[in-house]
Amino acid sequence: MKKCCIVIVTYNAEKWLDVCLKPFVKLPKDMAVVVVDNMSNDKTVKIIKKKYNFVKLFEMGENLGFGRANNIGIRWAYNNGFEHIFLLNQDAEIDIKSLYKLCKIQDEHPEYYCLSPIHYNKNKNIDSLFEKNLSNSGIIDFINNNPDKDIYEVNFCNAALWCLSKKCIEDVGGFSPSFFHYGEDNNYADRIHFYGKKIGVVPSVKAFHYRENPRSKNKFFTDKFKTNYRYMLQELSNPNNDGKFILFGFYRKLFIKLFFALLIGDLKRISRNYKLIMELAKNHKQIYKNKKLSQAHKRICFLEDIKL
User: Fold this and answer.
1) Mean of the per-residue pLDDT values for the chain?
2) How many helices (H) and strands (E) does the chain have?
3) Average pLDDT over residues 291-297
4) What is the longest distance spanned by two Cα atoms in the chain?
5) Domain termination residue (choose one: 154, 183, 215)
C-alpha cells in the first residue's frame, strides 16, 4: 500500500528547499514527494533537479496560485493510489516519523478528513497564527498542559501542514479555483464541515512553519481591497451559507459605502468600493458555479479535468 504523498507548491523557494525537502532524502518506498512549481524565476527548479531528483516535479507555465497548484499534486497522488496526501508549505518542515504517526491516527479515526500537527515557529514556540486559530476553538490550554487525547477537534487550522485522507479527496475534492492565494484553506474547511466530517490537531506531533511572509508585510493582508474581497469570496463560497442573500447584502453595503464616500469626496474609499462592486459583478456567477460544484457530492470535485 502506498501510504503518504507529500505535496509542496513552490514559488521562488530557493532559500527554503533544504528546509522542506531535506527530511525526505531517505524516502521510504511507500511515500513520495511531489513539487508543483508556480513558474519560479529563481533557481528553485534547477536545485530540485540537481539536488533532490527523487522529487516528482511539475513545472507550471504560469503561476496557478496556491490552491490550483496543490490540485495538480493532489490529482497525481490520488491517481497513484496514495492513502494520505500531506500538503506542506515551502517554508515548513516535518519529519517522516511524524508523518507516519499522523497517517496512523487518521487511519484509526477516519471521520477526521484533515489532521494537522502542532505548528511551531523558528524559536520553537507555538506559531502565533496557529495558536490564534486554536484559541478560537477553546482548546489551546489543554494542548499546552499535558493533553490527554490523540486528537482535538478544531473548526479550522491553516493549510501549511495538512494531512488529508483519500476519502476526503473523494468526497470534498480539491481546492476551489475561485481562490488564487489565501482563503482557499478556509473554504476547504467549510466544505469538510458541509460533508459532516472533522478537522483535528494531533498534539503529540510537532512540525515547524517558518512563515516566509509575515502578515504585517504581506499585501494580501495589508491591502484593504484584497482583504475585503477575500472575505466576501469566502462567505459567498461557503456551502453552508445562502449565497444569494449574502451577495445582496454585500452589494447593499458597498453601494451605501460608495455613496457616503462620494459625499465626502474620499477618493481612496470611492476607488476601493467601486472596484469591489465591479469585481463582484465580474465574478459572482463563477463563484456560484464553483460553490454548487462543492455541494454536489461529486467525486474528486475540482480535480476531474486535470490532465497529467
Assistant:
1) 91
2) 12, 9
3) 89
4) 66
5) 215
